[in-house]
Write a structure and sequence with these properties.
- With about 325 residues, the chain is an alpha+beta fold.
- It is built from 14 helices and 10 strands.
- A hairpin with a 2-residue loop joins strand 5 and strand 6.
- The longest helix is centred in the last third of the chain and has 18 residues.
Length: about 325
């Protein structure tokens, strides 16, 4: 049985994998799936599969699953969730420009401030660090008079203050506490920031997970990105009830990551970088590839499947790999 699991020499694994993923892919729905605990619709099915094979810089809806270092209680997990949720100034205050008096007024909502467990001192400290000029506080209204008082500078400063980071982890818009199948609590976030989450002391760094493959590549390296890619592709197919062998997904992920970076499958990635001229021309932008090859004097060694089909030769896979030698005389 051990020997039967091996792939035969000359087996067209690429074609088999492409057909095994492509055919069930036609059965996929274009609808998005609602992930429990995340308010937004997280793309699954065909939109998510396209997102993965295109190696997008960021998924449409990035999310993270964060597990705590110890078997934390619900209260402790809730506290961590509140501490990592990103709070910007525009979510707890109203910011208004006064061009006549050349000042900016920040009216803080005390209820929102208490809800986010912040104080007026925290807001003042953040404003002092972000602005140059005088700062006056009167109750819950903070008046800023910038040192550069041109109208353009006031508008620029107002836009900067709206997205001023007060607390939490950048890019984590929401953090929700959920109970796993094992009865332990974990945090699911809307938004992803893997590098910052790995620095959090109460977080189990071994089990932090993000659906952003490119971010995994940046933070943990290409091998981790490859594993993440396999998991994401398999999960998309499983959610649709399509039984595809994981080895096909592994081959696809290997092809995308073999050069040390996550590359897309398309004219800007793998298909556009094939060794043979005819193989590149058979995919997209045919004339461009042929003209470029002819002006550069490129040779095609006819080592692939596509090239041999084009010229009408036996394809070098399976029995086509067999060559006979004959001794003369």
């Amino acid at each position: 049985m051990k020997g039967k699991t091996k792939v035969d020499i000359g087996e067209a694994v690429g074609i088999v994998a492409a057909q095994s993923i492509g055919e069930p892919g036609t059965q996929m729905t274009m609808r998005t799936f609602h992930y429990a605990g995340v308010a937004e619709q997280v793309p699954t099915g065909l939109p998510r599969l396209i997102e993965l094979v295109d190696a997008r810089k960021e998924p449409k809806k990035p999310f993270m699953d964060i597990y705590l270092a110890q078997d934390a209680s619900e209260a402790a997990a809730r506290e961590v969730a509140q501490s990592i949720e990103c709070t910007k100034l525009n979510s707890i205050a109203q910011i208004e420009e006064n061009f006549l008096e050349k000042k900016i007024e920040v009216t803080v909502d005390q209820k929102e401030l208490d809800l986010m467990r912040l104080s007026m001192d925290d807001v003042k400290k953040a404003l002092k660090a972000a602005t140059s000029g005088s700062l006056e506080a009167n109750g819950n209204v903070i008046t800023i008079k910038p040192s550069a008082s041109s109208l353009r500078n006031i508008r620029r400063l107002t836009n900067k203050l709206r997205i001023l980071h007060l607390k939490g982890v950048e890019r984590i818009r929401r953090a929700l506490l959920l109970k796993g199948k094992d009865g332990k609590y974990f945090i699911r976030t809307d938004g992803s920031n893997l590098a910052a989450m790995l620095k959090q002391p109460k977080v189990d760094t071994q089990r932090v997970y993000t659906n952003d493959v490119k971010e995994v590549e940046r933070v943990l390296g290409i091998e981790a990105a490859r594993t993440c890619l396999v998991r994401e592709i398999k999960q998309v197919l499983d959610l649709q009830g399509l039984t595809v062998d994981v080895r096909h997904c592994m081959l696809l992920a290997d092809a995308m990551t073999m050069d040390g970076e996550v590359k897309s499958i398309g004219r800007h990635g793998l298909s556009g970088e094939k060794a043979g001229v005819l193989a590149r021309a058979a995919f997209e932008e045919t004339i461009k590839h042929l003209i470029k090859a002819s002006t550069g004097g490129e040779e095609d060694r006819l080592i692939g499947v596509t090239e041999n089909i084009i010229v009408g030769q036996t394809v070098p896979i399976g029995t086509g790999l067999v060559r006979l030698k004959m001794k003369l005389g």
